[in-house]
Write a structure and sequence with these properties.
alpha/beta; Rossmann fold; seven-stranded mixed β-sheet; 11 helices; about 40% helix
């Protein structure tokens, strides 16, 4: 597909989920795609590289959050373990009002994301190179966000220990999940209770024109998280709170 066709494809796919992109927004998503696959040749950013797959499984999937939940104007969002920038960068392109912070433990990914931000001229978005366990000790980040979102591949108990400490009381940790999550939800109850979280909602859906199932798990922060969480580096993944 030529660039113009690709941009039209992006607009049409977003129309299918009732997000009506401006031409410039669709063009930014295309530029992001083009840069992503080019950089992916020299560093491991994504296993998904076909244009239509990236649009569906990365761009659309990232942005279904703003269809499924009414995120307030100007909300602060931490994308923890952002990797190649999902869901944070598509969310920023589509909802320019959001204040986005992208956090990742690998510096070369952060360098890539900084290039994307500059190339797309995105405003009110920043990056931070840190492990979650270390960043959560920083008072500039701890309990400072309306939302913490993550598409990272880890069990919900582990992700909750990483993410909930960053959320303000009254805010939400949102976990993007695929596959069957029932057992995972049950196993995470103890962790949520210890961390000051409470499962509020689970929204299940399929990606448009596919049989790919996804879930968004909404965990509300109902009380301040004990300062002993997250535990030291590596412990939450090796010994989940369940």
């Amino acid at each position: 597909m030529e660039k113009i066709e690709c941009i039209e494809f992006i607009k049409n796919k977003f129309n299918d989920i009732n997000i009506h992109l401006l031409e410039l927004q669709a063009e930014k998503l295309y530029i992001y795609y083009d840069f992503l696959v080019e950089k992916n040749k020299v560093m491991n950013l994504t296993a998904i590289t076909e244009f239509e797959d990236v649009v569906l499984k990365h761009f659309i999937d990232s942005c279904l959050l703003i269809i499924k939940y009414d995120i307030p104007e100007g909300a602060s969002v931490l994308d923890l373990g952002t990797g190649a920038g999902f869901p944070g960068i598509p969310l920023k392109i589509v909802r320019e009002d959001l204040k986005i912070t992208l956090a990742d433990s690998l510096n070369k990914r952060i360098n890539f994301l900084n290039e994307v931000i500059e190339k797309l001229e995105l405003k009110n978005i920043d990056t931070v190179h840190s492990r979650a366990e270390d960043l959560a000790r920083d008072t500039s980040y701890r309990e400072q966000f309306d939302f913490c979102v993550s598409r990272a591949v880890a069990n919900l108990s582990t992700l909750s220990e990483y993410c909930i400490p960053f959320v303000k009381v009254g805010g939400f940790f949102v976990s993007y999940k695929s596959g069957n999550i029932e057992e995972e939800l049950v196993q995470a109850n103890k962790a949520l209770n210890l961390l000051g979280g409470e499962k509020e909602n689970v929204i299940e859906y399929s990606l448009p024109d596919s049989d790919i199932s996804r879930s968004l798990i909404f965990v509300k922060k109902v009380k301040t998280c004990s300062k002993k969480y997250p535990r030291k580096s590596g412990v939450p993944s090796k010994t989940p709170l369940c």
